[in-house]
Amino acid sequence: MSDQPKADVARRNFLLTAGIALAATGTTVSAQLSVQPPVPPSGPKKKLGMVLFDGFELLDVFGPLEMFGMLKDRVEIVMIADKAGPVRSGAGPQTIADHGFADAPKLDIVMIPGGLGTRREVNNADFLAAVRTLAQDTPQVATICTGSGLLAKTGLIDGVKATSNKMAWAWATAQGAKVAWIPHARWVEDGKYISSSGISAGTDMALGLIAKLYGKEMARWVANRTEYRWQEDASDDPFAKLNGLPG
Amino acid sequence: MSDQPKADVARRNFLLTAGIALAATGTTVSAQLSVQPPVPPSGPKKKLGMVLFDGFELLDVFGPLEMFGMLKDRVEIVMIADKAGPVRSGAGPQTIADHGFADAPKLDIVMIPGGLGTRREVNNADFLAAVRTLAQDTPQVATICTGSGLLAKTGLIDGVKATSNKMAWAWATAQGAKVAWIPHARWVEDGKYISSSGISAGTDMALGLIAKLYGKEMARWVANRTEYRWQEDASDDPFAKLNGLPG
C-alpha cells in the first residue's frame, strides 16, 4: 500500500538515483526515504488478528494497525470479536469484526487492545476463555494499554514481564498478581508476549514488533512513510512518573 | 471518558492534594496530570463529523478521533460517507458511517482524511460536491494528509494556506493550483481551515485544534491521558526535507 502517485515516485526515484542524502533532523527520522521497503517480502503473508469488544479504545487498535497496514504485501489484518459484525468503541465509532472467536482463522500475531470495556470483559468468562485460547494458539501475542489486564486475568502471563496503562496501573496490575509487572516502560517484550503502556504507546510497540519481525530499518521505513516520530527506546517512559509510579 | 478505575483516581487525587509535583521529562509532558479536564464544560456539545470513503487511511481518521474522543462531555463524534453503512479502509478494517451526506446533521467541526481512496474521489463529482457543501456549512474544517487534496479539488481553499502529505506532495498540490501550499509544516491553520501533513501529523494537528478550541492546557491534558508526546510546534517538520521538499 502506498499513498503516493506516480509523479512522486518518479521524483523520489530520481533523487535516490542521484544519490542525494535525504537525512532528516530528529533521532528517529534517520533512514533515507525509499519507495520500496528495505527488505523484500519472503514466505507467506502473516495473519494479524485484532481482538475487539464494546468499549475498545480507538488508538489502541488503529495505531498498531496503521503501522502493520503499511506492510500489505506481507501482513493481512483480520478483526475478531465475540461474534462477527459491528463493535462500538468507547469514543463512539463502530468497527466491523470479520470473525467471531469460534470461526477465527489461525493467526501469526494476535493483538489485544484496552479501553473502558476491559472493566466488563474481565468478568466475562466466555470472553476470557476465548482470548486465552487465541493467545495460546498464536506464536506472537501483543497487548496495548489495559489489554494486558485482560490477558493477565486469563492467567497466561503469570511470571511473564509486562506493562500497562500508567493511569489505570492499579486496576490493570490487580488482574494478575503473579505477572512480573514493569511500571516504567513504553513497552516490554518477554518471549512471545509484548505489551505496551497506555493508548499511544501501542504505536511505538507496533514499530518495535515490526523491528523484531522484519528488522529495524523496516520499522524506520514504516515510521517515515507514516510521518511518525517513532520512540525507539522501549524504556523511555515519562508517563510513569507523571502518574506517581516508580521511575 | 476515562480509562481508569476508582482506586487510581483516589491514589492520584491524594497525590495532587498532597501537592506533589508530578513533573515529567520531555518537552511536551509538562502539565501535572489531573483527573478532571483543566477547563469545565460549558455550552452545548460540539458535533464533530469525520468524512469516510473507501480506501481511507486508518490513522488519519482514528488519531484525531482518539484525541477528541477524550472530550466526551463536550464533543460528539459522527461518521459520514456517501451513504450510511460499512466503509473499508486502505489497510482492510471497516468502519461504519452513521450518516450519508444527504442526512448528515449540522456540524461544528468537519474532518476530511486522506488515503489512497482520494485518488478515486477527486474524480467523483458527487462526492466533491457533498464535501464542498459540508465544508461550506461547517464553521471549522480540518483535513488530514491527502484530505487537503480532496478539499483543494472543490475549489474552496483557493488562496488559503494549507499543507499535505510530504510523500504525496506533487499529487496533492496538483489538485488546487491556487491554494497557498506550505511544504514545510506539521500543520497549518488559516481562518476556519486547518490542514495537517501526512498520516501521523493529524494527531498533532487535532491537539492543536483542541488547544485552539479549549486552550493549550486542555490539549496537554488530553495528550497526557493518552500517553502521547504531543509535538506542539506546528512548524517542526523533518519529513519535508526527507522527501526533498524545501525546508
Automatic annotation (TrEMBL), chains A, B:
<dbReference type="InterPro" id="IPR006311">
    <property type="entry name" value="TAT_signal"/>
</dbReference>
<protein>
    <recommendedName>
        <fullName>DJ-1/PfpI domain-containing protein</fullName>
    </recommendedName>
</protein>
<dbReference type="InterPro" id="IPR002818">
    <property type="entry name" value="DJ-1/PfpI"/>
</dbReference>
<dbReference type="Pfam" id="PF01965">
    <property type="entry name" value="DJ-1_PfpI"/>
</dbReference>
<dbReference type="InterPro" id="IPR029062">
    <property type="entry name" value="Class_I_gatase-like"/>
</dbReference>
<feature type="domain" description="DJ-1/PfpI">
    <location>
        <begin position="47"/>
        <end position="211"/>
    </location>
</feature>
<dbReference type="InterPro" id="IPR052158">
    <property type="entry name" value="INH-QAR"/>
</dbReference>
